[in-house]
Design goal:
By secondary structure, this protein is an alpha/beta fold. The chain has 3 domains: 44 residues, no CATH class; 128 residues, Rossmann fold; 145 residues, Rossmann fold (3-Layer(aba) Sandwich). Helix content is 42%, strand content 16%. The protein has 13 helices and 12 strands. Strands 2-1-3-4-5-11 form a 6-stranded parallel β-sheet, sandwiched between helices. The protein has a 6-stranded mixed β-sheet with strand order 7-6-8-9-10-12, with helices on both faces. Helix 5 links the parallel strand 1 and strand 2. It is elongated. The chain starts with 7 loop residues before the first helix and ends in a 14-residue tail after the last helix. 43% of the residues are buried.
Amino acid sequence: MANDRITSVDVARRAGVSQSAVSRFFTPGSSVSTKTADKIRRAAEELGYRPNVLARSLITGKSRIIGLVVGYLENYFYPEVVERLSKQLQTEGYHVLVFISPLGGDNIEQTVQEILDYQVDGIVLASVTMSSGLAARCHAAGVPVVLFNRKQDDDRLSAVTSNNYAGGRAVADHLLALGHRRIGYIAGYEGASTQRDRECGFRDALAEAGCVLASREVGNFVFGEAQAAARRMFSAVDRPEAVFVCNDHMAFAVMDVLRFELGLRVPQDVSVVGFDDVPPARWAAYNLTTYRQNVDDMVAETVRTLLDNINLKSETPRQVMLDGEFVVRGSTGSASPANATGESGPSAAPRSEIA
């Protein structure tokens, strides 16, 4: 049939089955007998038929599309999240439509409105937050929203996060146990719950040990801004002997400045800790001590929460907080006289992971 408007009726006629059988065959989650499926598959291939997903969505009211909004992809953490979320949702018969909405920008309202125009079945916001008005609009449209690696004070929104507060405490405990007392912190984007909770846990643990934060700068989760923050912090006469950087992406920038611009050794002169445990943290070039977020479990909980809201019409929000794991590598070491005097020298060879 040399016609590009092949329909399911044509396939049914060629296969010798009912049109409803063809519809079931091409509907995720439905089933037909193996014999019938073979007939339909062969007829569809012969005719060059592909189901019209958009037309089917008008009938079923389901687009089988999930909108995913990410703040930025420079951080290795988020490409990994996008890949794993996409794969898990695809196994459930859904596809992901990705939108970029920069951190701190005012365009999240427009971005989510564009996503709603695609008649998506659900939305995942990764590293971004939304206004209460926008949350109400999604709720009214019957489109569930799940926050990934963020949380906010809105009881209509489900959220899946790591225990960022506990992670911040673990970083402080590690540096204190190594004997460090002059400790700095380089913050991420101030409007992010991840930044707030990590710093809060870090500061609380320091305070309980009678230690006051020696220096603080802001890197906004941006590589270049983290470099500038490191220059300001470690060009000072009373520079810290250890620093907690709010995520690995910025920690790499800090380490580059310390070693290649300021001539400081890691960890002999400065101990550095990050957060996330993205793949480069395990590279010999960085060998970064960090707090690992359990991406697989976070993704699984996000998909489960979203599909429960879609399929079961559950309107009860879920707040899921998952424990991570502190990973000790070669970027941290014991406090020493060299730390106190600020002596510098060539970078030490990285140690093997202890995790």
